[in-house]
Amino acid sequence: MSANVMDDELGLLFKYPLMTITRENRNVVLVQGKMFVNTKDIYLKIAQIFFQGQYRYELIKMQNVSPVLAVQEVHAVLKKNPPSILIMLDQIYDVVRTRAIVERQLLPADGRSDIYQDVLHEISEFLQFYTLVKVQIDQKSNLLHIEHADVRGQEHSVAIAFFYSTEKYNEILFKISSCDLPIKESTKSHSTSLIELFDKLLADIEQLEPYIQLMNSIDASATVVDPIPVTKRLPYRRIYISDTISVLVVINPLDVYERPEIKFLGPPGQVEKHNSLLNENLAKWSCSKNILESILNLIGYEHFPAIDTPTIQEDIIKETRTCSICLTEKCPSQDVLPDITCDKENCVAWYHKFCLYSYLEASGARRVFEELVDLCPNCSNPISCPVIEIY
Amino acid sequence: MSAMSPSERRLQKELMSLIKDPPPGVTVDAEQAEQNLLQWTIFMEGASGTLYEGERFQLQFKFSNKYPFDSPEVTFVGSNIPVHPHIYSNGHICLSILTDDWSPALSVQSVCLSIVSMLSSCKEKQRPHDNAFYVKTCSKNPKKTKWWYHDDSV
């Protein structure tokens, strides 16, 4: 029995990927969705109804099929009570196909249910060629999300769109829709072969290897102000120098040894000073050395300055802002700092709304409109807490 | 490690601060507490200059999974139960913050401090006057006792 069900489900997925089966209630199962027959999608909605130990099928809706004759044919199939949903759909498919009831015509390029079969086929072939970290098909937007690890174990993600060609019938095209690396424009053009496309991408990644390494070392040693979050897709970094000055470094991803474009940003007076230093250093640029070091030499630093953080002040805030119930700043259930205190000015206790509410509710506090009112667990002065939903 | 419940997280936090920064004369059996966060043994020394100077006591803390909303069950255990007007010979302690006056803002540390100060302020070593009757009739869990709090001065 269960084996049959499994076979049915797999068969359904392969043959009619856009058909869904939902159980409406104890007696009714709905089978609905699109079926691809003779180059056309027809829409079906059929109910499987259990009644007195028996089941029967009923056609609720059928679209894109003409003439009306077809409806009668389908009714005849359903009358015979096919032994399973898969067989029922197979029989409908046969009827509609052999009677040529569906008008043979070319369809608009999208909205065809068989695109997934073609794509799945292409992907299964593709997967035999590469070991990938993750592959995911997004049916809604016709995207293939791939995560790939390069020779150094760095992971890169790429999204590949798939769609039917508008020029040639039955041809699927693949195109890189987004990638977290600055890949070449030529790689971005569409291709009929997923393998070919991916090969181009891999070649790009290999060529970008020095760039990836340089960006990693910059991101690890500098305080990057822009882009945030840092991404290798963008070949520039704006780096913190002081509270008023930052430096923009633009790198050529295909040739990291080329002298990067460097621009100081900030008040004109200070920028002037940095620029004159930069001009002196420009002549000393050498590409043979460590690139990161060369860039630092260029802007006149031994290492990128770190942001001075007023650590002591932060500690004071943290210490006073521990929730007196769970004893943490941020409890895992709620990603917020404690934000409730009682009315008494010198009471030091703070509470998370969630913690205080849980306590007041458990201790049977009085509810006044949308608030629970009771005494502060720390100083026994009145405290109130808004009523919240706890799930 | 599997996800901790809110009460376990809080107990873990309290245990850490008690190990790191214990009140004078108080030590916790960290190994045992780490194995079972819901039951701790705490050793307490009688403060110098008090009637209990030089004595060592053993306290047992039991926590429910409702802690800190629910108060811990605290009793003296072991061979030496302090002789004190609020401490019964079976180890039960008559202390309001352990039942009626418990609040989640209190902690193991504040309970220990209360007990230390209760011992320190004692002027005469004696059992509660109803000790014999109470010990015979009481429940094993001191939290089930309807306490009739004695005066606050001791």
UniProtKB/TrEMBL annotation, chain A:
Gene3D superfamilies the UniProt entry points to: RWD domain-like, Zinc/RING finger domain, C3HC4 (zinc finger)
Q: Where would I find the FANCL UBC-like domain in this sequence?
A: 213-305
InterPro entries cross-referenced by the UniProt entry: Fancl, FANCL_C, FANCL_d3, FANCL_d3_sf, Znf_RING/FYVE/PHD
All residue ranges annotated as the FANCL C-terminal domain in the record: 322-384
Extract the PANTHER family matched here.
E3 UBIQUITIN-PROTEIN LIGASE FANCL, UBIQUITIN LIGASE PROTEIN PHF9 FANCONI ANEMIA GROUP L PROTEIN
What name does this protein carry? E3 ubiquitin-protein ligase FANCL
Q: What is the lineage of its organism?
A: Eukaryota, Metazoa, Ecdysozoa, Arthropoda, Hexapoda
Automatic annotation (TrEMBL), chain B:
Q: Does the keyword Cytoplasm apply?
A: no
> What is this enzyme's EC?
2.3.2.23, 2.3.2.25
Q: Which InterPro entries match?
A: Ub_conjugating_enzyme (IPR050113), UBC (IPR000608), UBQ-conjugating_enzyme/RWD (IPR016135)
Residue ranges annotated for the UBC core domain, each copy included: 6-154
State the Gene Ontology terms under molecular function.
ubiquitin conjugating enzyme activity
The protein's annotated catalytic reaction(s) are: S-ubiquitinyl-[E1 ubiquitin-activating enzyme]-L-cysteine + [acceptor protein]-N-terminal-amino acid = [E1 ubiquitin-activating enzyme]-L-cysteine + N-terminal-ubiquitinyl-[acceptor protein]; S-ubiquitinyl-[E1 ubiquitin-activating enzyme]-L-cysteine + [E2 ubiquitin-conjugating enzyme]-L-cysteine = [E1 ubiquitin-activating enzyme]-L-cysteine + S-ubiquitinyl-[E2 ubiquitin-conjugating enzyme]-L-cysteine
Q: Which UniProt keywords apply?
A: Transferase, Ubl conjugation pathway
What Pfam families does UniProt report for this protein, alphabetically?
UQ_con
GO biological process terms, alphabetically, are:
protein ubiquitination
**Can you say what this protein is called?**
N-terminal E2 ubiquitin-conjugating enzyme
Write down the species: Hypothenemus hampei (Coffee berry borer)
